[in-house]
Amino acid sequence: MESMKRLREENLMVSEIGSTLLARFDGSEGSWFQKISSRFCSRQSFALEQLKAKQKKETRFNQFIQEAESKPRCRRLQLKDIIPIEMQRLTKYPLLLHSIAKCTEEAEERQKVEKAAECCRQILNHVNQEVRVMENLL
Asked: Which fold has domain 29-137?
């Protein structure tokens, strides 16, 4: 993110993002992102069940959640609606990067964006597999 901010400060229009995308979705950063995304997404069904049960049983907890959900930062979304957003975003990354690659004229830059899109697809496939494994356990 910092590299994108620096690029934007140098020029109002960011024309090269391939290296930044690869740094985020490939290599050690990509592995880390895959690991935390898999962990979060594979446990979201369990988390939603626990949230629902705890809200039914504990009035104080339910009041706390309602107060938190009323804050502007939540944009009128409930916690049960916020939790799945990570998985929804993950599914959009490859599509977004594919669209960016199609609009990228310079060949080397396009290759970097396409590689980042492929890395995103691999991350998404891994996350989907982890979600299926966890669903079979529950």
From this structure: Dbl Homology Domain; Chain A (1.20.900)
Within its chain, how far is the Cα of 119 from the centroid? 13
Burial of 40 (0-12, 13-18, 19+ CB in 10 A): middle
How far apart, in Å, do the first and last CA atoms of the chain sit? Answer: 37
Closest CA to 1 of 27, 31, 23: 23
Domain spans in the chain, listed from the N-terminal domain onward: 29-137
Enumerate residues 6+ apart whose C-beta is below 8 A from 23: 3, 29
Given pLDDT bands bounded at 50, 70 and 90, which one contains residue 137?
confident
Of the candidates 74, 73, 77, 85, the one whose C-alpha atom is nearest the C-alpha of residue 44 is 85
- Residues whose CB is less than 8 angstroms from the CB of residue 40 and which lie 6 or more positions away in sequence, other chains included: 86
pLDDT at 88: 94
Task: Give the predicted TM-score (pTM) of the model.
Answer: 0.81
Rounded CA gap, 75 and 65, in Å?
14
How far is Cα of residue 31 from the mean position of the Cα atoms in its chain? 14
**C-alpha torsion angle, residues 53, 83, 136, 127 (rounded to 10):** -160
